[in-house]
Amino acid sequence: MAKIYKKTSGNGSIALYLGKRDFVDHVETVDIVDGVIKVDPAELEGRKVWVYLACSFRYGSDDLDLIGMNYRKDIWIQRQQIYPVVGTKPANTPMQEALLKKCEDQGHAFTFNIDTNLPCSVGLQPAPEDVGKACGVDYEVKAYIANEADDPDEKINKKDTCRLIIRKIQFAPGTIPAGPQADISKNFMMSDKLVHLEASIEKELYFHGDPIPVKVKINNETAKVVKKIKITIDQTTEVLLYQADKYTKTVLNEEFAEEVKGESTLEKTFTVIPLLSNNKEKRGLAVDGRLKDEDTNLASTTLIRPGMDKGMQGILVAYKIKVNLLVSSGGLLGGLTASDVGVELPLVLMSPKPADVPVE
């Protein structure tokens, strides 16, 4: 194994080992979460060792917990007893075999299966002055020493725990459908002539960081002048768990000084690239889940499969491209009497599947 992720409890009695921290949602199945816990029974004092995998939604800073407000809501959780060993365990994976050799006779393997209807890891970008952990959906593997798996009356000391944050991620499908097209025809006061606008993109889905060519066709039958073309990309985020909250943030806004005079046409492709690096100051912007302070990107589009419970997703993310024409009457009052002609195109943003991720 190229890398092992390890966390040890404060008292040194248990240590949590994972061979990776990214687990892929293949739509029909999700990578199993397989790891090993090393247990030194000497300091257990008759207590047991447990491990859980939880998918949780965090919607406030850690400070809220100090005043009695719960800032973390578990969407889904599974627990297993690790020590003493009970029942039968599934066959060890090759990674677990390698970890067990490292732990010798104190190692105990565990396996969790993540439900396919659970959300992918996603966070809401904090403002530069914000402290603590960001709002969002995350996954946590936690080993702990306790008498019972989940006794609300039992106080578990922090030194009896160790945990690792993992990510559930999803990559773009292998087949990408053709892109959408939208058009509109608009007339203006005192004229029966029309401005026709058509916009399209070649593919339905683009990868984060890739250029997006937007094809624009304009047929201006009027005497008015199209002064410029504006292309924006909006991210719409719907937070479902703690309240009905839906908001839109612009992640790209570019203007092109293309003038289309009266009774003329234009056909041109404009290339845009929405990037998180250009939106670092926007609080509440949805970003793909991150581990510690590593770089990430704009949140991937949420793919809702038939029969999936939207409420379980925690945060839904969607994108749209808007193409707008600023149409002026010309003359001295042209700028004061300008109006918009616009269309919208749905956009899917995702990460490409790495070559080393098997096709399911």
Kindly describe this structure.
This protein has 360 residues and is mainly beta. The model is unreliable at 62-69 and 331-337 (pLDDT under 50). The two termini are 22 Å apart. The protein is 4% helix and 46% strand. The strands form 4 sheets. Strands 3, 5, 6, 8, 9, 10 and 18 form a 7-stranded mixed beta sheet that branches. Strands 13-20-19-15-16 form a 5-stranded mixed beta sheet, with no helix packed on it. It has a 4-stranded antiparallel beta sheet with strand order 1-2-4-7, covered by helices on one side. It is built from 2 helices and 20 strands. The protein has helices spanning 63-66, 94-103, and strands at residues 5-8, 14-18, 22-25, 33-39, 48-58, 72-83, 107-112, 122-124, 136-146, 161-170, 181-187, 194-201, 205-207, 212-220, 225-239, 245-256, 264-272, 286-288, 315-328, 339-350. The protein is elongated. A hairpin with a 5-residue loop joins strand 1 and strand 2 (14-18).
